[in-house]
Amino acid sequence: MNKFTLSVAGFLIATLSAGSVYALDSKSVAAVNGKKITQKQYRAHLKQLQARNPQGKQAPVNRQMILDELINREVLLQQAKKQKLHKDKKIAALLEQQKNNLLIQALIARSPAAKPVKEKELKAFYDKNIAGADPKEYKARQIQVKDEAKAKELIKKLNDGANFEEVAKEESIGSSAKEGGDLGWFVSEAMPAPFAKAIKKQKQGTHSQKPVKTQFGYHIIKLEESRKRQLRDFDEVKSQIQQLIQTQRLKEYVIKLRNKAKIEVK
Percent of the chain beyond pLDDT 90? Predict the structure, then answer.
């Protein structure tokens, strides 16, 4: 490298350094075209990176990498504004939508749904819904029809020796019709209450002698097998129970707000 090149390089370094000193202050970490990137922005970006890293706050910090990312973002943002993309109608609408989403998320974070669920409440839910649940699971088939008269007619047909699977394929309107009404293994809580009540009383290898009415129509149920259900321990499902309770709280919060609101629908 000749003296001229060295002097030019020195001049550029001096100019860049002088520019940085001029633009920055104690609250800034960098500047792009005079626009400062603050210590607060740096810490916020670092926090986001740590939240995504499995090591969390223990993860090593690469300050230069973080600065480069912030500088790159600012360069791109300035260029976007220079091209007046923020005034584009479609982009403005998306920005408004994102702003509204953030506001809703902030509200939910401060709502009753976000409050920690007490251990006593978690245990009470477990005892009622899991420990006290039906100890069996079932494997069954069904024939689902629209009206009771049709269901009674098919029950008589089955009693006369008709094959349950074939009748299900021909007559059932349920989604399992193509499989001969096969519902596979299920827990009673997953079914509508009248269906669940009926399956508990059903004898293995038999079909319903009376149609079972639910909101989906009339059902003829054939119980093929039942077996003991493996219930999970409290500690295994504790976090899931918390999510369920908080989801229910959120639903109740939304319903409360809707009841107070004047809602008009066309």
Answer: 75
